[in-house]
Amino acid sequence: MVNNMKNDNARMPFYYVILLLFIGLTACEQKTDTAIAKEKDRLTLWAHAGQAAERQILNQQITTYNQKHKIKIKANFIPERTYNAQVQAAAVAGDLPCVLELDGPYLFNYIWQGHLQAIDALVSKEILDDLLPSILEQGRYNDKLFGVGVFDSGLGIFTRSSVLKKHGIRVPDGPADAWDDQEFENILKTLSTQDKDGAVLDLKLNYPSEWFTYAFSPAVRSAGGDLIDRTSYQSAKNFLNGAPAIELMSIFQNWFRQGYIDSNVDDNAFLSGKAVLSWAGHWEFERYSKTFGDDLIVVPLPDFGHGTKTGQGSWLWSMTRQCQQVDAVKSFFEFILSPEQVLAMANANGAVPARKQAIAKSTHYQTSGALNLFVQQLTYGYAIPRPKTPAYPVITTSFSQAFQDIRNGAKVKQALDKAVADIDNDIKQNKGYQTNVLTNK
Amino acid sequence: MPLNFKSNVIKFVRYSLIISATAIYLVPILYMLLGSFKPDDHVLSGIFNKLQYVAEHYSLQNFRDVFERVDFKRYLANSLIITGCVVFFGLVVNAMAGYALARFHWQGRKLTLTIILAIMIIPMEATAVPLFYQLSILGLRNTYVVQIIPFIANAFFIVLFYTYFLSLPKELEEAAYMDGASPWRTFLFIVLPNSKPVLASVAILSFLLQWGNYLWPLLMVSDENVRPLSLAISTFYTLPPLQWGDLFAFGVLMVLPVLIVFIVFQKWFVQGVVASSHKA
Amino acid sequence: MIQTLLPKHLVKTRTSVLMMIPAILLLIVFVGEPFILSIILSLTNLRLGSPLPMEFVGLQQYYEIFSDQAFQRAIVNNGIFALCVVPIQTVLALSLALLLNQKMYGRAMFRMLFFMPVIFPLSLVAVIWIIIFAPNPEGLFNDSLNALTLGHWQARDFLHNEYFALPAIMLTSIWQGVGFQMIVFLAALQAIPHQLYEAASIDGAKTWQQFWHITLPQLRYTVAYVVILTTILAFRLFDQVQIMTQGGPSNASTTIMFETVKSAFAQQQVAKAAAMTVVLFVIVLSLTGLQQKISKKVRI
Fold first, then answer.
1. C15: in domain
2. Chain C residues closer than 8 Å to B171 by CB
3. What is the distance in angstroms between the Cα of B144 and the nearest Cα belonging to chain A?
4. Nearest-CA neighbor of C177 among C256, C96, C117, C100?
5. For residue A128, with 0-12 CB atoms within 10 Å meaning exposed, 13-18 middle and 19 or more buried, which class applies?
6. ipTM confidence
7. pLDDT for residue B36
8. Phi, psi (deg, nearest 5) at residue A72
């Protein structure tokens, strides 16, 4: 009996080996991106794989570009959530493409690491003049332009005009007219008493940690504090843990205590009617308006003392240091920054178009459009960029952590002190993030 | 007859316990399975409502979306190649090592065993970053080889083979040696055929570990051509609102190969029972 | 009676060395050497992607992590986690394996069903668990507990409650880990010779006695292996923490590996993370050494 089993079992492994070797050999024929980058008539490009429509448009744009130009773009789409990690890993290994899409606030860290080169020469004056101020604000460092965005983001409070009307709550008619914090507190109280579980405000607590910095640090600014001292970017002391910041975070903590905030576990609190106020970004507009139609309105974030402040910043395009194909990159930038392409992308992902010409043609963002508030915020300085420093990664981690702790009932001063300690410690360890590695091109 | 009745009642109780325990145990899986057939906005929003099992709007659309949004076939092929190689070569290498440790005398055997037990403790995160630096410098990023070779030898599995071989009765091997068989022949044709249960479990576990391996490809693979399925799943993790239906459909598709491996190798478990009862 | 090595006169040393070489080589190159490098790195201030030069700072990283409240809490959490999860999961896995090892209808199907939680990507399953633990009264867990206590349960936000966060993660882990360990036990149960049971039945031994005097002793090595394995995995806890609680609230559910990955990738402090993994290694090594001493039954 043993002999029978011997024959059957002896043969199988060998077949398996042969099969695997065969597969392995055929698989080796694939060319990797790094090999392609060496070819002269190819332009390597990395972009994040975001929402479906966004990706499709970008794909189309690349195809169109390739049809019209001699140099062809070879695009690599990397999943959004792992994008920074993968770019970081590739950067360390020296495997970056020529054109690199980046999430706005991380731009400065990559500049500091020496991976990018300035693109001032690649964007014409005509385009520069037509761009929203916030776009230039986001992409400039030490008076040089390193990144240019095709769209920007909008942040506000979505709500329904019928609900506001029912409770006699006034609708602000612009950023200058925002609710102040006392008024907002009363609004929350009024709405809460009428609500089944008392939770009326959706803060998107289910979002990943970057959201907290993006969505709530402007409020800190509005109260008079900030994430860090923006004159020298060396310390967060007295800015993130000063009296204004502490007061602001205490206000937030109080809202949690009072039960005003919905936990939004299924990301559906506003749509199902459980929450009537939704502190959210432009990307929610389409989903919300499908359900609420014209009843949906967006109002500015509350004014905590120094005027309403809101967030800004989104993906932008940059050029890596080792890239030599300057002309090709220039033609690519000109193409995607043309008004038609900007409008196409903005229509696809619902974001604010970067160019004023495109804004004028956009249904939602033109002067009479539903989302024009976002344009106003970005144009007139109500939108605050996230800190433009290589220390940004640690700043955002520390702030999100502090926010979460405060949300869970930790002592506000302690949580903020810890965040400041972490940030300052990191800056010190990196010798103040002095940038002596800028290339001048 | 009272005796039959009693044993039937016991059987009935036992079966109902098992079935209800299984049902409760699988609630999260059930949600995912059902969710993969529903349109995106119905997946999570209805989850608080117990009546959501009503079969409205079920369709295969999410599965179609998955194939449209990512190059699923490519990523599946990559994962199969990588995982298949790791499992196969792993079985060979780890079984040999486990056998040598269990059956042979040689200098330093005890020391080797202790070291291997110690290596079991080292988490992959501890070795990932140094390896990442070293292998990147060698230019091995974005290849199949770099996703396969580091994972072939595995201390967990060596020890698993070791404990299993220890518990096998020595008689058959001793008889083979008496007949003049070499250690290789004994190992290949006598020990291994009688080790189906452990070979099956290591195959299943090692397939599983490698199939979902995420950190390493994250560091070493940016090229779509060699990207495995585990990285591809993040494509669906865009910023919220997530398309839950698509995400769950992807999860279900990703699980199918493992399920197949499990079912196939489960048969080997059963064969083990049959074989050992034959020994009597 | 445990079988060990073959009689010396039958064995050829050369073969044994050849059999060991591939595994040893691979382990040294891909596990041993990087780990040693990691230890060396823990004595520096290396940061991921930083253009600043790396310097040797001696034991400074260790000083820092031990004075870090988060890390201290992480060690405590891992300890509590191991103490609870190891016995519960092992006992459950063994019970399941025993149950599924008998002749019954649908045995193969049940085996597969209990293995299901292991094969689904944890990132997806964790999302469902997050929803199960939803804070409002209709959330599945709150609702079930309410039904079980006949209406006396007050709805809680488990994942954001400092007392319930870690237990919630424990539950998720046990749920997923049981299937994994069950497979190992199943394989071991198959290795037990049938004759032993047959002989015992003939001698009139009841089921319980058979279990105690045949099954358990035969499983000695495997149980020891599973206990050590579960302990090691308990200290490597990471995924659930990252997805469900992110270490909160206020470090109530953070673990060593979570702090490590946070340091390495979120804060880009590779050297600090390396120090943490060295500490992890030392802790687990001592623990398993202790376990082995206690259960003297495991002979090498």
1. no
2. none
3. 8
4. C117
5. middle
6. 0.83
7. 85
8. -100, 140
CATH number of residue B134's parent domain: 1.10.3720.10
Asked if B45 is an interface residue toward chain A (Cβ–Cβ < 8 A), one would say: yes
- Taking the C-alpha atoms of residue B209 and residue B216, their distance in angstroms, rounded to an integer, is 12
pTM of the entire structure? 0.84
Mean pLDDT (whole number) for B221-248:
81
Series of mean pLDDT values for 10-residue runs along chain C (300 residues)? 60 75 92 92 83 83 89 94 94 86 74 85 81 80 83 82 90 89 84 78 78 80 85 87 83 90 82 91 87 62
Nearest to C15 among B31, B151, B183 (CB): B183
β-pairing verdict for A151-152 and A352-353: antiparallel
Q: Report pLDDT digits (tens) over C170-184.
A: 999 999 889 888 888
Contact by Cβ (8 Å): B81, B257 = no
Best B221, B235, B267 residue to mutate vs chain A (most A CBs within 10 Å): B235
Instruction: Please spell the DSSP secondary structure of A342-407, one letter per residue.
Output: HHHHHHHH-PEESBHHHHHH-TTTSTTSTTHHHHHHHHTT-EEPPP-STTHHHHHHHHHHHHHHHH
User: Is B234 part of the contact surface with chain A (CB cutoff 8 Å)?
Assistant: yes
Question: What are the backbone dihedrals phi and psi of residue B88, each rounded to the nearest 5 degrees, phi first?
Answer: -65, -55
- Is B5 contained in some domain? no
Return the residue of B nearest to A20 by Cα.
B85
* Chain B residue numbers touching A17 (CB-CB < 8 A): 88
Whole-number Cα distances in Å, B189 to A7, A271, B192, C22? 8, 65, 6, 20
- What three-state secondary structure class fits A117? strand
Flag whether C35 is in a domain.
Answer: no
Q: Please check whether residue C12 touches B, CB under 8 A.
A: yes
Helix-helix angle C107-119:B27-35, to 10 degrees:
70
**Does C162 touch chain A if contact means CB atoms closer than 8 Å?**
yes
Question: Which are the contacts of B244, defined by CB distance < 8 A and separation ≥ 6?
Answer: B35, B40, B43, B44
Chain B residues near residue A268 by CB distance under 8 angstroms: 44-45
Q: With respect to residue B173, please indicate whether it lies within any of the assigned structural domains.
A: yes
Within a 13 Å sphere around the CA of A183, how many CA atoms are in the beta-carbon half? 14
The topology (CATH level 3) of A157-309+391-431 is D-Maltodextrin-Binding Protein; domain 2 (3.40.190)
In C, minimum Cα distance to A422 occurs at: C267
Q: A33-153+313-379 architecture in CATH? A: 3-Layer(aba) Sandwich (3.40)
Residue A88 touches partner C, C-beta closer than 8 Å: yes
Residue B118 with chain C: CB contacts under 8 Å: 285
CB-based contact C138:C202 (threshold 8 Å) = no
Q: What is the pLDDT of residues B174-200, one digit of tens each?
A: 888 888 777 888 888 888 888 888 898
Range of the domain at C93: 59-294
Q: Please indicate whether, in this complex, the C-beta atoms of B237 and A20 are within 8 angstroms of each other.
A: no
**Is the model more confident about A121 or about B178?**
A121
Residues of A in contact with B133 (CB under 8 A): 92
Closest CA–CA distance from residue B72 to any residue of chain C (Å): 16
Which pair of tokens denotes residue B90? Answer: 């792993």
What is the rounded distance in angstroms from the CA atom of residue B231 to the CA atom of residue C169? 24
Inter-chain contacts counted by CB atoms under 8 A, chains A and C: 62
Q: Is A35 on the interface with B (CB under 8 A)?
A: no
pLDDT in tens, C28-59: 999 999 999 999 988 988 887 777 778 888 88
Q: Which of A276, A266, A302 is nearest to A181 (CA)?
A: A302
Task: Compute the distance between CA of residue A219 and CA of residue B106 in angstroms, rounded to an integer.
Answer: 70
Chain C CB within 8 Å of residue A196 CB:
no
Which of B238, B247, B261 best tests the A interface by mutation, with the highest count of A CBs <10 A? B238
β-bridge pairing A261-262 and A201-202: parallel
Band of residue A436 on the pLDDT scale cut at 50, 70, 90: low
